[in-house]
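Workshop exercise sheet. Pairs work together: one partner reads the sequence aloud, the other fills in the structure field after running the prediction. Swap roles for the next sheet.
Pair: D.N. / O.F.
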Amino acid sequence: MTYADRYDPDEDFDRWYTLATARSGRWIRPGDAVLELGCATGLMTAAFVDHGAVVTAVDHAPTYLERARARELPGATFVEHDIVTVERPDRFRHVVVANVAHEVPDPARLFRTAAEHLVPGGLLHVTLQNPARSTAWSGSSSARSPTCGSSAPGARRSTRSPSSMPRPSRPSAGPPACRACTAVGSW
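Structure field:
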């Protein structure tokens, strides 16, 4: 029995993380190319397609991909591959790594893969519901970004809740900056 046979991301509590992360779709414009690494059953993929995105969604679990394909999402292509080592010929305006970085043995390699697939000026969307759970992150948990879980040099923990973080005046201004990601630089 595989993990995908035991765990249902559409029914588990994690679906709330997925749906909350899908709200990042407000940064996605019709026609934007999105690479979703770790799409599972396509719950978040559906939200991106609803925003008009053209999505390439990758997961290693055939059981999940079968359910994702059953959603029959126009504009979505589902690819069976390991999310850490996937190589796509296209480059994307958005790469989404949501709720999976703590599940891979080498998160740094996952983020390199994500960065390699971005167009210049593209956006990397990262969520990690519990950075302290990951044993792969280096450094103390207090040095991790509260937004993306990064332990990048210069990362600082925010003392504000995400709901009190400053928001741009209009969506095209881009997402609120993660202090750690800003320290790393734009891809």
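Discussion prompt: Residues 134-187 have pLDDT under 50 and may be disordered. What would you look at next?
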